[in-house]
Amino acid sequence: MVNYIEASTAPPKNTGAIRLYDAEAFEGMRRACQLTARCLDALADIVKPGLLTDEIDRFVFDFGMDHGAYPATLNYRGYTKSTCTSINHVVCHGIPNDKPLRDGDIVNIDVTFVLDGWHGDSSRMYPVGVVKRAAERLLEVTYESLMRGIAAVRPGARTGAIGEAIQTYAEAERCSVVRDFCGHGVGRLFHDSPNILHYGRANEGPELREGMIFTIEPMINLGRPHVKVLADGWTAVTRDRSLSAQYEHTVGVTSDGCEIFTLSPGGLDRPGLPSHNG
After folding, report:
1. Is residue 6 in a domain?
2. 191 belongs to an annotated ligand binding site
3. Are 272 and 126 a contacting pair, CB within 8 Å?
4. Subunit structure of this entry (predicted)?
5. Binding site annotation covers 144?
6. What is the distance between the alpha carbons of residues 118 and 114, in angstroms, rounded to a whole number?
7. Helix 23-43 vs helix 53-66: crossing angle, to nearest 10
């Protein structure tokens, strides 16, 4: 049994109920998400061979502080960084460190800013220098998977429609969908109900209703879908060491579809690749 609750009356914790937000909340999310999108835009100018992922982390922290926002990941459940930087076969939650990016790498940068209590959550892939065609194709497939998932969002559909759209496309392109991680409700809370699976069937999962806000963030592998988490407790990698990619948007369900809160104001939703917003 799925419960829905008006967000304004919901307790400040994840109870399993799905929050329905009003127009004022949507405006708060627009501001937070656009700040995150502007940060991700700015990163496109600095990601290049030789850059330390710790330097990316400092950039994100400073960007947030300069705009009155706080990185949601900093000190979240013991995590000590302001962003996640996931390179090549790292699926997600890569921890910034003092190792430099190398020519040919692909890196996902995941940023969530808390602005006036609202969480703006998004991530993008950045090619480092000149990447191989296989890596470029993976980025294309992953981005298209995200946009197909978003296109399935409308009131009356179920969350499974998002997963089916992503899985059907990605697997037809001979890629695999990671099942160990998923999208999630977001708003006043960083991680809330419902979980948004990136695989499944259209008739499964909670019904989508106007006012819901959540992330869609498919992780797509060139090889098999299986992952493992390293000893640091955060870094997830592909078991077969195949390349992995991820793009993420935060969306809100509207009366006739959805609004993408985290669209790039500079048309850089796919940094280093031709602009394409679906």
Report:
1. no
2. yes
3. yes
4. Monomer.
5. no
6. 5
7. 140
H or E, element range at 39 = helix 23-43
Q: Does residue 105 have a known ligand-binding role?
A: no
Token pair for 76: 């979240």
pLDDT at 274: 63
Q: Is residue 5 in a domain?
A: no
> Does the annotation flag 232 for ligand binding?
no
- Cβ neighbours of 157 (radius 10 Å): 19
248 annotated to bind ligand: yes
Give the pair of three-digit tokens for residue 115.
Answer: 């602005």
173 is in an annotated binding site: no
φ and ψ at 18, to 5 degrees? -95, 125
Q: What are phi and psi of 243, to 5 degrees?
A: -65, 145
Residue 190, domain extent: 15-258
Residue 194 lies in a domain: yes
Please give the single-letter amino acid code of residue 7: A
pLDDT of residue 1: 81
**In sequence order, which residues have a C-beta less than 8 Å from that of residue 273 and are 6 or more positions away?**
127, 136, 139, 140, 143
Measured torsion, CA atoms of residues 137, 140, 142, 145, in degrees rounded to the nearest 10? -130
Q: What total number of domains does the chain contain?
A: 1
**Structural domain contains residue 277:** no
Q: Are 31 and 116 in contact (CB under 8 A)?
A: yes
| CATH number reported for the structural domain that contains residue 198 in this entry | 3.90.230.10
Do residues 60 and 82 touch, judged by C-beta distance below 8 A? yes
184 is in an annotated binding site: yes
Task: Please give the angle made by the CA atoms of 253, 126 and 218, to the nearest 5 degrees.
Answer: 40
Residues of the chain with pLDDT under 70: 274-278
